[in-house]
Write a structure and sequence with these properties.
There is one protein chain. With 357 residues, the protein is mainly alpha-helical. It has one domain: Glycosyltransferase, CATH 1.50.10. Helix content is 53%, strand content 1%. The protein contains 14 helices and two strands, in the order ααααααββαααααααα. It has helices at residues 13-19, 28-44, 57-71, 77-92, 106-120, 127-146, 172-187, 194-204, 231-243, 248-260, 270-282, 289-303, 320-324, 327-338; strands at 160-161, 170-171. The protein has a two-stranded antiparallel sheet with strand order 1-2. The protein starts with 12 loop residues before the first helix and ends in a 19-residue tail after the last helix.
Amino acid sequence: MILPVPLRLPLPMILLFALVPCWRVVPAVESDVLLRNAMNYVRSQQQPDGSFGRPQPHLRTGLAMLSLLSLESQPGEGDRGFLQRAARYLLDTSPSNGDLGDEIFRTESHAAALTALLIGHEHFQTESLRADSAQIMARALRYTLQIQDRSSSSPSRGGWKMEGSKGQTNDRRASAWSLLACLTARLYGLDVPDAHVERGLHFLLGSFKDRADSPDSIGGFSVDTEGLAVELISSMGGWALVRFNGREEWSKKNLEWIARHPPAWSGPNYFYSAFFRLRTLKLEGTSNPLYVETRQRLFNQIADHQQADGSIAFPPGNAQNTIAMGPVFSTAMAILVLNLDDSRLPFDEIYPVTPHF
């Protein structure tokens, strides 16, 4: 069985100190104020039906739930109501086959919604919602496994397509979120056969640059099996390597690539890249100077763009479909990025949680 355990990597500290400038640690009070104001904004955006607006209402709702669950291990009554309304929306607007996805970017939104329901389940206020959500989550997990590419005959196979069962091309972003959902389901005691995880990892790691014509690409991952390494795929691939106990030598090269390419306040996948990049580094250890520097850099970038209402703006260059989701998306993602040190989300913990199902 593939165990989701962290891997401590033998990256020479002298390399990290040479690549990483000296940054101050984020003062706790500054971080707390930013996160509190951001979460208050997300709370204020919940609609009467429990959603957080359109387009991509399921993705936005799932991310809003996860941002709260990251901050609150024991939500108060008001926040339990927030979670209950959001969960009821997801359940009431999903078909009977367990598909929790939106009309576009279906797999990604399905995986985020499933992950949020899994983690939020114990906090739902009514027995009927707990029973209904448990039933839907079982269907949703089966759906996740059913829409995976069942072949791993080449590096371009074995993952998930962005639009569910439609289309021909597997997508690494959709596959990373699907693996995150599978990991969370396992942590809660649900059965995810090894073959599904192995196929997903085979695809996600299939574009690793162990050697490359461009030395700068070594250690990174590309969108396709050929091409230059890019930040988003390199961050997701690095997370998969350390979270699922992957190849030690690859992990070392990936951390070297990440150190050479610090995050910049620019799109189109800033928040997704930061989400997976920082989790890759945390599994190396929070005392790692590269983790400390990266978290400080991301805090500075995000804090500089927090608005008076607590929301977080988008960096330049973001894709139009992302901007269309508005600041609920960017603010919830900013919380998930910056609260990593104190995250209550099981997929961010070192040890498995007590199963609830």
